[in-house]
Each structure stands twice: as C-alpha cells, then as structure tokens.
Amino acid sequence: MGFLDLIKNGVVEEFTGTISTLDLFLSLLVAFVSAIFITIIYKKTYTGVSYTKSFVLSIILLAMVTSLVIRTINSNLALSLGMVGALSIVRFRTAVKDPIDTVFMFWAIAAGIMAGAGLYLITIIACALLGVFYLISYSKMFKPIEKYLLVINTNKKNSVEVSKIFINKNCVLKTQSIKKDNVELTYEVTGREFANLMLELKDNELIESMHMISIN
C-alpha cells in the first residue's frame, strides 16, 4: 500500500457515514446554550442607537445552524464536499452597522463549530472565558467617558455673559448660531462637569432655554 493510499484511507476513516441522534442533540443544545450566553453579554454591553431583537435571534440561529453544518461535514465525505460547494456560492450582503456586531457573529460561528465538532466542554469553557474577559475589558479597562451636548438659547446681548460661565470648565464650544436677537450655543460637556454645570445654569436668568443630548 502506497503513501497516498494510507492518506486516503486515513481521511475516509474519519467519516463515519452516520449521524448519532444523541450527538446531534448535544451539538444543538451546547450551541444554543453558548449562543444564549453570547446574547446576554451582547445585551449588557450594547451601546448603539437601535437595539434589534432580530440580530440577537440571528446570533442564536447562527450558532445552531453552524453546529449542524459541522456535524454533517464530520459524518460524510460526499456531503462535506457538497456542503463546501454549496456554501461557496452563497453571498451574504447584509450591512453590519457596528464592527462589534461582526465580532459577536464570528463568536457565535466559532461556538457552533466547536459544538458541531463534539468539543462540548471546550465550547462552554471557551465561551465563558471570552465573556468574562470581554466584560472586564468593557467595564474596567476601556470604560467610555460620558459626554453630553448642552444646547443653550439666550438673548444676543447676554451671550457674552453666558459664555463666561464656561470659561475654565471642561467644556468645548461646538457650534454658535445667531438668529436676529437670539444666540444658540452648543457645548460638549463631560459627565464629571455635567451635574455641577446643570445646577449652576438651572436658575440662571440669562438663559432662555436649555437642552441636553447624550452622545455616548
């Protein structure tokens, strides 16, 4: 028997030709549990504008479908080659708005691959470790600084006096609009300065109106 025949037989022996019902159920179950954990991490750390339920459901389905694909590939050589050919012509063109959404999708795919390969304990441990490390990085190491836009409307003759309030404060003037007798000032304010500044401006008679916009 030649060297190529040994390789061929070794590859063929890896494919059993059958799919165990228990293995299939375990793969789906582990993929589902892992995906639920991933979606919990996603919901706790989501900072975007529009949270969508469909994306969370997509993460769960993506992990489970991936586990089915890997389980099928592991069972039959012909099916694995056909699956590769079928997937090669599929094009997904859905735009992902936030780069972190792409990472969570890749995380779900990785969990599905491990679950489909029968690495159940490794799947759970790996997902748990990734989730813990990500939460630590999100809450401690890379905690975002709270910022607000403070929009102030005042009379034109009082605009100079109002501007003096923001001198020597951690505020940045973003825009200044003048309309006849009124002036609109927009300042970027950090969370630390925001509470004290609001108390200072609350009863100021020079200010006609004031609006706050969170930009986190």
Give a topology summary.
Elements: H1 3-13, H2 21-45, H3 53-75, H4 77-88, H5 99-116, H6 120-141, E1 147-155, H7 159-165, E2 171-179, E3 182-190, H8 191-202, E4 207-214
Antiparallel strand pairs: 1-3, 1-4, 2-3
Helix pairs in contact: 2-3, 2-5, 2-6, 3-4, 3-5, 5-6
Task: Describe this structure as you would to a colleague.
It is a single chain. With 216 residues, the protein is of the alpha+beta class. The protein has two domains: 139 residues, no CATH class; 68 residues, Alpha-Beta Plaits. 60% of the residues lie in helices and 16% in strands. It contains eight helices and four strands, in the order ααααααβαββαβ. It has a four-stranded antiparallel sheet with strand order 2-3-1-4. Helix 3 packs antiparallel against helix 4. The longest helix has 25 residues. The termini are far apart. The mean pLDDT is 76.
Question: Could you give a quick summary of the protein structure above?
Answer:
It is built from eight helices and four strands; from the N terminus they run ααααααβαββαβ.
Q: What labels describe this entry?
A:
216 residues; alpha+beta; Alpha-Beta Plaits; four-stranded antiparallel sheet; rod-shaped
Number of domains: 2
What's the N-to-C terminus distance? 67 Å
Broad shape: rod-shaped
Structural class label: alpha+beta
Number of helices: 8
Compute the CA-based radius of gyration: 28 Å
User: Strand arrangement, largest sheet?
Assistant: 2-3-1-4
What share of the residues lie within helices? Answer: 55-70%
Overall pLDDT metric: 76
The count of DSSP E runs of length 2 or more, i.e. the number of strands, is 4
Main pleated sheet: 4 strands, antiparallel
Low-confidence stretches: none
Strand content: 15-25%
User: What is the H-and-E element order?
Assistant: HHHHHHEHEEHE
